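User
Here is a favour to ask of a fellow structure person. I am asking you to supply a protein in sequence and structure-token form. Please set it down just below, with no commentary around it:

Assistant
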Amino acid sequence: MGVASSDFSRTSEYHRPVTANHEHLTEYFPAQTGILSVVPKAWVPYGELIRIDKPTGTYYLFFPCLFSTLLAAPMADPMAPFTSAAATAALFFSGALIMRGAGCTINDLWDRDLDPQVRRTRLRPIARGAITPFKGIVFTGFQLLAGLAVLVQFPLPCLAYGIPSLALVLTYPLAKRVTYYPQAVLGLAFSWGAIMGFPALGIDLLSNSAALIAAACLYTSNIAWVVLYDMIYAHMDIKDDVNAGIKSIALKHEHQTKQVLTGLAITQVALLGAAGMAAGAGPIFFLGSCGGALVTLGIMIRRVNLKSVKNCWWWFVNGCWITGGVISIGMAADYVSRSLEQSEPRPVPEERSLQA
């Protein structure tokens, strides 16, 4: 059902039992642990709607923003100071938190008739009637306004780069109805942050060809990563998706999944390396970010059990931090190295004495 809709929902006693004609639907009980167990009862359905208790999707949306910030920082003229890069990353995280929630709400509005047919999603707030579609639309409006409030904190060019991504957020849920490759559309949406770090740090992509190439390669690299991890995620719903008529790359390539995952991993790392070359990155980036990504993705592809919902979920959640972490650490180390190198005083050449 896609990252934007990732959910292992529990149910709640204060809403009516689900009565759709699906034999696996059961009554809903409230969460007894975690953040949803302590928020006011009236807020719980909205917390469930934005998956506040399942933040992995937020991290996946944030990582490409962090990647582009770290890759762009040394390319800025002058080089962006650490405080500026950190403040930019923090602002991106707040935007990712808001927009991931908005994406989940939009997804559930589109899928309100499909979700009751899938075991994992059958008790989502809109699907079970805890939130009406109208209230969901109003809530989406507030979330989008909050996202816009974050976006306007960035330099003005970011508005022109950021707003078009909304079209992808709105259309992704439709893709799973018409194509076996909705993950590609999800990748286009979830990877948008791989572009945003450059204008956020004052780099004009239209006048800086090296930055434009770096951003394009980083964006396409992240698309490959999104398709890879969401293909693993889609295996959790593969049986229910068949019955519900939902299309996914996991269904299309069910018996060649690991071969496809391997191809995606190679593509991701190759494009990541190309982004580093365009950005003038040093050996630390290629060893840490590219090498680390290749190793961690290889381990995940080898070890993930696609027949096990629990194992797919484990790799989906932890793969975010493992692969996203090594890429970020490599980029950050390269940024620090280049910053220190630039700050070293250069020796002043001795003046030659004038000869008569």
